[in-house]
Amino acid sequence: MSGLRIALLANLKKNAPHRPWEPNDRWAELDSERTVEAITSALQEAGHEVTFLEGDKNLYQKLQRGRFDIAFNICEGHQGDARESQVPAILEMLDIPYSGSKVLCLALTLNKPMAKRILAYRGLPTPRFQVLENPYESLDSVLRYPLFVKPTCEGTGMGINGNSMVRSEGELRHQVRWVIETYQQLALVEEFIEGREITVGVLGNEHLHVFPPLELDLSPCPPEEQGIYTGRIKSELPNSPRYVCPAPLTDTQVEELSQLAAAAFRALDCLDMARVDFKLDANDAEKPYILEINPLPGLSPGVSDLVFEAEADGMSHAQLINAILNEALKRYPHLTHRATRLVGDFALAEMAHSAVGVGK
Ligand SMILES: Nc1ncnc2c1ncn2[C@@H]1O[C@H](COP(=O)(O)OP(=O)(O)O)[C@@H](O)[C@H]1O
Ligand SMILES: [Mg+2]
User: Ligand 1: which of 152, 197, 199, 291 to mutate, most ligand atoms within 8 Å of CB?
Assistant: First the structure.
């Protein structure tokens, strides 16, 4: 196998275009240099030549100048409510193959209400919700308190804090106003699901491999976070929750979560990888609800949920990264033969024990 020329595309926190009027957590979802270095080493270990390019306004020219076989894309984007789609759109204009999900999937999943509408259409369980354009709009009478308020188009806990769960109309109006004013976007109001928090990683395309579920135990976190996986915990206190993988669940629960994660992956047209976040309703026999699907899950060694889940399956960070690349290569017939063996025993066809085939 000869190595590929890979453009590793990411948005680094340190390169973010800081503007003084923006909220402190504005760039929380961007990547660290450590993550980019780890992905670079993983791809180099498999014999590829890797060039990191910042996914900024000059990306089009930088890509035109380089002669790349494929892009490994983890760009979250800088602005616009479909910002995760911008780099895939550029890559398609330039006819450059790339890893991960495409334009439509990345636009839909960044918009939580849009993704929830599709999940609901497919009969997949997601909390009942309403989108509010202003703090005075009347609330749908089917919604029951407590409710949860979050921005419609953010990730990484942005706009989620100890006040996000609201028990009264007064609290609701206050939090909706804060979200709309601070994040300059509509507010998503959902029924609050009390119970355990589980996240499930998916890898593959034709055959899906579902990783062992990871439970996020928030009980060791500061009480003011109210048992919610807030932006502050995600960005400032990542060591305060307990990450338990495999999560202590019955075989039936694991099977149900795996089927739901795979079905959500199919419903949103994800490619190569994704992570599906669930809450298990403590008041209804731990019925699982899908909160959201992340087609660009974090890939930081020692930090990201998907990486922990892969490790629990015996897959190293380098193997995970190369497995994602190999999945993408299958879409490009002229590159297929250049898949790496570094993934070795983890070739997806061999992952029989938790492979799930779910039709469209
Ligand atoms: N409807 C809900 N009920 C209970 N907790 C919720 C709900 N929605 C979000 N949360 C809490 O907020 C966290 C972040 O919400 P999520 O929708 O996953 O957004 P993000 O994109 O920031 O991860 C969740 O991990 C969970 O702790
Ligand atoms: Mg989430």
Answer: 291
